[in-house]
């Protein structure tokens, strides 16, 4: 590592840095010049109501769609200028993962490991470890088309962790998982962040999940960030209200038609 003007090593780059990120679909601005950064060792929650711009932002981070403006860097690697370098240190779980159903679980993991250039011995050890962790060891040689929805979710999560990413990006990680699977995933997020120093960037609609696992959160509404900080900060700013009330107030989603007037 090089030294800066003062002779000390520069601070490590953030695991994720987003600057002036915008995305326009036709004349509609889905994401409006957002800035955020996620330090190593942090679990970061990305919250917002339906249509706020979470999936659009996450797809840009994963390199699935291009932004209209702005920059994304992963541990100092610019996603647009060095897409392979940036993606090689990221694990990515989209909201609707695609799996080749005619592969077995192990074949799928091998396919992913080849993309990341892992060697055979490393793959064998890591795949066995992850299949055991996600309680899929017995299923490794079964076709994915025979997996339940939750098992597919766990396999996708295992694939994303295979190469020990320094940033894990997950769109709605708890959807489709049973309580045991959800507990396991929350524990894994905390462990890879707090013990192994990776960063986790996750969107969620579940305030209880954000309160339980996230060190920091941002709330996005209509494409703009409307709040950021720790869950405790947000509660304090809302006069001690719980996160759900703060969220509803900031995103205007508490002003719905009174249910009793309709039913
Ligand atoms: P949800 O919580 O419902 O998944 P979200 O916060 O992930 O919502 P996005 O999926 O990012 O929201 O969508 C943000 C806005 O951009 C929405 O109004 C959506 O209709 C719009 N949008 C997303 N993709 C496209 C597209 N390909 N073309 C046009 N509009 C789009």
Features of the shown structure:
263 residues; alpha/beta; Rossmann fold; six-stranded mixed beta sheet; four-stranded antiparallel beta sheet; 36% helix; 23% strand; binds adenosine-5'-triphosphate
What features would you describe in this structure?
The protein has a 6-stranded mixed sheet, with helices on both faces. α4 packs across α5. The chain has one domain: 3-Layer(aba) Sandwich (Rossmann fold), CATH 3.40.50.300. The longest helix has 16 residues. By secondary structure, it is of the alpha/beta class. A hairpin with a 2-residue loop joins β4 and β5. It is 36% helix and 23% strand. The mean pLDDT is 90. It contains 10 helices and 10 strands. Bound molecules: adenosine-5'-triphosphate.
Number of strand segments: 10
Count helical runs. Answer: 10
Question: Going by CATH, what is the homologous superfamily?
Answer: P-loop containing nucleotide triphosphate hydrolases
| CATH class (first level) name | Alpha Beta
Note the beta-strand portion.
Answer: 15-25%
Could you give the distance between the termini?
A: 65 Å
Q: What class would the helix/strand composition place it in?
A: alpha/beta
Instruction: Give Rg in angstroms.
Output: 19 Å
Low-confidence stretches: none
């Amino acid at each position: 590592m090089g030294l800066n003007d003062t002779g000390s090593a520069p601070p490590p780059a953030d695991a994720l840095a987003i600057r002036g990120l915008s995305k326009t679909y036709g004349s509609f601005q889905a994401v409006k010049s957002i800035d955020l950064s996620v330090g190593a060792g942090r679990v970061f929650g990305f919250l917002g109501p339906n249509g706020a711009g979470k999936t659009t932002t996450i797809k840009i981070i994963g390199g699935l769609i291009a932004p209209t403006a702005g920059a994304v860097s992963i541990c100092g690697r610019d996603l647009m200028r060095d897409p392979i370098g940036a993606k090689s240190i990221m694990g990515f779980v989209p909201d609707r993962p695609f799996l080749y159903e005619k592969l077995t679980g192990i074949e799928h993991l091998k396919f992913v490991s080849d993309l990341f250039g892992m060697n055979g011995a490393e793959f064998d050890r890591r795949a066995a470890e992850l299949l055991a962790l996600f309680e899929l060891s017995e299923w490794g040689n079964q076709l994915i088309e025979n997996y339940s929805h939750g098992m597919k979710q766990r396999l996708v999560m295992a694939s994303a962790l295979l190469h020990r990413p320094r940033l894990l990006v997950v769109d709605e990680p708890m959807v489709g998982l049973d309580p045991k699977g959800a507990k396991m995933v929350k524990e894994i997020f905390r462990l890879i962040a707090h013990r192994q120093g990776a960063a986790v960037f996750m969107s969620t609609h579940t305030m209880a999940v954000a309160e339980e696992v996230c060190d920091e959160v941002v709330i996005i509404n209509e494409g703009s960030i409307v709040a950021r900080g720790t869950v405790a900060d947000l509660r304090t700013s809302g006069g001690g209200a719980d996160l759900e009330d703060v969220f509803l107030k900031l995103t205007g989603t508490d002003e719905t038609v009174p249910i009793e007037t309709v039913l």
